[in-house]
Amino acid sequence: MLKIGDFSRFARVSVKALRYYDELGLLKPVKVDEFTGYRYYAATQLTQLHRIVALKDMGLSLEEIARLLKDDVSIAYILDLLHIKQEEQRRKLEIEAERLKRVEEWLVKVEREGKMPKYEIVIKKIESQKVLSVREILPDYSHISGLFRKMDGYLTKSGGQMIGPPLAIYYDEGFKEKDADVELIFPISKEVSGKGEIKCKELPGYEKMTTTIHKGAYDAVGSAYTALGKWIETNGYQTIGPCREIYYTDPRSRTPMNEYVTEVQLPAAKI
User: Fold this and answer.
1) Which pTM does this prediction carry?
2) Which parts of the chain register pLDDT below 70?
């Protein structure tokens, strides 16, 4: 028999881990001295310990390993569990591959431009939310100010309260000099009644929204869209909905336009 220290050294598993495996019933010593409390193991138990280590390295939890090592476990259960772990590890590899690609993109940009990129692309999950909205065909984008006036007036009358920055959805596929299809949206805290063109509804969310932050005047926001579009194409995504803009700087404020902060969003999915 081997003392726990020797068994630990031969197996390259810590004494602390061996004691924990004993507590869980994963690997019990063949003998525990009733006077000293010393644990003793048989050399043949190295086979069982190596199996525990191998399964743990595959990402299985100790609880899952304990179930697998029971004598009555079925082959069907073992196969199901391994298939689940296989899919989990495959997904982890995909995530790490995406991260590696982003690092490589940064390297190319910094090496080419000699400075940090202007736009950072971040993928977010967007939850659905209760909103008050108005959608119109505008003569041009500058007329969105008229939608703000309508929404401000109605929000005051209805007793609603905004709980976040306003946003706009642009339904046209590309830039339009006239007849722009725009929806202005105010996130609200509670249901209010709509009236005519002003609607109270649930704005749908997206599992993956590609986003970037534009700082500066609205007439230069096109560069943010260009950065998003390039990222989507390069990384094997495709847009699956209209673009959104979140106005963190209220356009009705007196803030200088070069300090405006706007988040540009494009819903996307892997091709």
Assistant:
1) 0.67
2) none
